[in-house]
Amino acid sequence: MDDLPRGPALLALARDVLVNDLLPLLPQQRRLDALLVANCMAIAAREAEIDDRSRAEIIGELEKLIGPDFRSPSRSAGPSLSRIAGEDTSRSEARERAAELLRRFAGELRIGAFENSPEREAFARAILWRMTIARLRLANPRFLAANGFA
Amino acid sequence: MAGTRSRRSEPAAGAGNDRRPALARFLAEASGAEACEITSLAPLSGGSIQENWALDANFSGGRLAGEQRLVLRAAAATGVPSSLDRRQEFAVLRAAFAAGVTVPEPLFACGDTAVFGKPFLVMRRAPGTAAAHRITRDLALDPALPMIAEGLGRELARIHAIRPPRPDLAFLTPYDRSSPAQQIEGFRAYLDRHPTPRPVLEWGARWLETHLPAPVPPVLCHHDFRTGNYLLDGTRLTGILDWEFAGWGDPHEDIGWFCSKGWRFARLDREAGGIAGRASFYRGYERDSGTAIDPVRVRFWEVLASVRWAVIALQQSDRHIAGGERSLDLALTGRRASECELEILMLLDPSGLPADG
């Protein structure tokens, strides 16, 4: 139903025109601004094509770690977070619950809640790695590559 | 401070024109000149918190008689509470200058807002560039960089030779209020206010809390000693800049900050500020200070540096999101927090690298 080219493709084209056609015409002192605009466009394009599955998997792992009893304080019950992409959970509700779970995870890390169990501690660290790499794939894939991550 | 040394807090080019007469009168009086004519006053790029102006003036008599190339440094519109005011920064600069640190000679400080609209200090203008990406990318500089790193080690040792008690620096935050434990408390207070949870920063702060180093006698720390905050004129170091965060602290804090990955710019592989291996920098420091650097303490402070830089990056982007400052640069800086988080994981969990990336 959408007109072509779609949003991300349009954004990529616009960025290409900015960097290759317009940037060389700008005075030296404004080129950094243009590069910042190009960077914003690249981030926006990557975020527009975000892989919801990978995010849902991370949330699913968090749910396993924090415990099956976890329920968002704002809701007494609800479908499993691992079914975040399912039709029975609205996107905004899922986001809210995921944010709450993340807050809980951060709080547990602050007090060292996983430190008495090597297994849970290792599981928590694996989630931290996964989360960080997922964020950098959007924000700065070049930095990720420079640190040896494909 | 944080971020690249560009596109920050630059006042409009003509903004200083109506202030010239009052400024000229102040300069004449402060230098003992009969008169002072300002021949040029133009904004300089650089400084995330302060605004800097290139000031050329012709003094008739007095201790600066003749043409002078100066810098006027004033607070930008958005003040950051943890930074020194200009008169305090002036006192720190004077102490550093007297201790033989390569800094532009500080000349005057003025707290009277009728002169320039805000407090300011005036110092000599040193030649050179502080552009970190250029310094870390310029192949022509490469052969000289280990020597420059060694020189920076010596400079830092001279800064650290300034120790309390110092009545002239009595305003500096005492070490017990800027200790790692206090800093961790500050990070957590910020994270509590931040709308998005940052689990890696919490994890890093917890590691710091459980690995606090034993306190050491405090020294003067620059607290933002890094590539991007020194001037190079060719291969010659001409000035250590941006003293607004100076305070008493553990000397390893500055060493960890200088070496942390967030300040290596184009050369992540060169661990001393993106310009050389650690050996050159450490050699300069150890020779001049007569003190051995403790790598365990440096590692602690490098982890803290990554948490601190992440928090600063988020705060910078808050200035755009909630502080009313429309800025692409500030908006993008918040995304850099994830780079610090990766570094925290790489430092503390090197064997935990996920097999699938």
Could you walk me through the main structural features you see in this protein, from its secondary elements to its overall organization?
The complex is a heterodimer of chains A (150) and B (357). Chain A has 150 residues and is mainly alpha-helical. Helices cover 67% and strands 0% of the residues of chain A. Chain A has helices spanning 7-22, 28-48, 52-66, 91-110, 118-139, 141-146. The model of chain A is unreliable at 72-87 (pLDDT under 50). Chain B has 357 residues and is of the alpha+beta class. In chain B, strand 1 (35-44) and strand 2 (50-60) form a beta hairpin. In chain B, helix 5 (145-160) runs parallel beside helix 9 (278-289), helix 6 packs antiparallel against helix 7 and helix 7 packs antiparallel against helix 10 (295-321). The two termini of chain B are 32 Å apart. The interface between A and B is medium-sized, with 38 and 32 residues.
Tertiary shape of chain B: globular
Run of helices and strands of chain B: HEEEHEHEHHHHEEEEHHHHH
Termini distance of chain B?
32 Å
Structural class of chain A: mainly alpha
Average predicted local confidence, pLDDT of chain B: 92
Number of helices of chain A: 6
Helix content of chain B: 40-55%
List keywords for this structure.
heterodimer; A: 150 residues; mainly alpha; 0% strand; B: 357 residues; alpha+beta; five-stranded antiparallel β-sheet; two-stranded antiparallel sheet; 12 helices; 9 strands; 40% helix
Topology:
The complex is a heterodimer of chains A (150) and B (357).
Chain A: H1 7-22, H2 28-48, H3 52-66, H4 91-110, H5 118-139, H6 141-146
Helix pairs in contact in A: 1-2, 3-4, 3-5
Chain B: H1 20-31, E1 35-44, E2 50-60, E3 66-75, H2 86-98, E4 106-110, H3 113-116, E5 120-124, H4 132-137, H5 145-160, H6 180-193, H7 199-210, E6 219-221, E7 230-233, E8 236-240, E9 247-249, H8 251-259, H9 278-289, H10 295-321, H11 328-333, H12 337-348
Antiparallel strand pairs in B: 1-2, 2-3, 3-5, 4-5, 6-9, 7-8
